[in-house]
Amino acid sequence: MGSIKQFTIGTSNKKKSRKASKPRVKNQDRWFLKSLEDVLGYSRPWKAVQKFYPSMLGNPCDRYLYYAYHGGLANQEVNPKLQRIFDTGSSLEQRMEKYLRKAGLFLAAEQTLRIDTPPISGRYDFLINYKDNDRAIVELKSINDKGFQGLIDSPKPEHTIQLQIYLNIIQLKNGVVVYENKNDQELKAFKVQQSADVWNSILERCLRIQAMSLLDVPTMCTGAFYCACREVKQ
């Protein structure tokens, strides 16, 4: 997630103030909270999907992509908090659809796009009427304030990859990655234009992963600290 370095003006030997600790919350109805927690968490097994999803291809780690495609990743533990995050994203999509309809831009939502060679399948968020009698795909993301402020002139690379996949499958020139700040609902919208070069690199990567044997799998993860391949023991 992007961030902006902060600089302070003052003497270099001045001690930084310690971050204030959060006050301890009291008088919690633990029965009520547990009743909700018990129905939200679950374990989701990773299976050999034998296809590539746009969210998978947004991860730069080939080790992850191999195990996601061929199988071998550990079960994903979805705790109650993570499930609420997923559900918050769904509610954002519902709100955005209402806004797009009101603006006269809405054409379709969550339509599946796929190709067979290599096998890529995914669903875009929205197809809209775009300026100059064109159409565009909208990829919608929610992000915390730190990440939001770090987005200056372009989307996050993984979101650009996702959008490029949709644009090239459906053959549209323009797309928009829209971010909503979770803290204050401010929006940023970055225009992305279809790129044949990016698309060709995605296709080449997929074909390479398909043909890769277990002996060829990279031993090191090149993804983020939370990349699922870090749990693979092979």
What can you tell me about this protein's structure?
The protein is α+β, with helices and mostly antiparallel strands and 234 residues long. The protein has one domain (42-231): Alpha-Beta Complex (Lambda Exonuclease, Chain A). It is built from seven helices and nine strands. It has a five-stranded mixed sheet with strand order 3-6-7-8-9, with helices on both faces. A two-stranded antiparallel sheet has the order 1-2. Strands 4-5 form a two-stranded antiparallel ribbon.
Return the CATH class.
Answer: Alpha Beta
The shape, in one word, is: globular
Beta-strand percentage? 15-25%
Largest sheet: 5 strands, mixed
This entry's quaternary arrangement is single chain
Here the CATH topology equals: Lambda Exonuclease, Chain A
Structural class: alpha+beta
| Cα end-to-end separation | 28 Å
| Unreliable residue stretches | 1-17
Percent helix among the residues? 25-40%
Count up the domains. Answer: 1
Largest sheet, order of strands side by side? 3-6-7-8-9
Q: What is the number of beta strands?
A: 9
Rg of Cα set: 21 Å
Proper CATH architecture:
Alpha-Beta Complex
Mean pLDDT: 85
Helix and strand pattern: HEHHEHEEEEEHHEEH
> How many H/I helical runs?
7
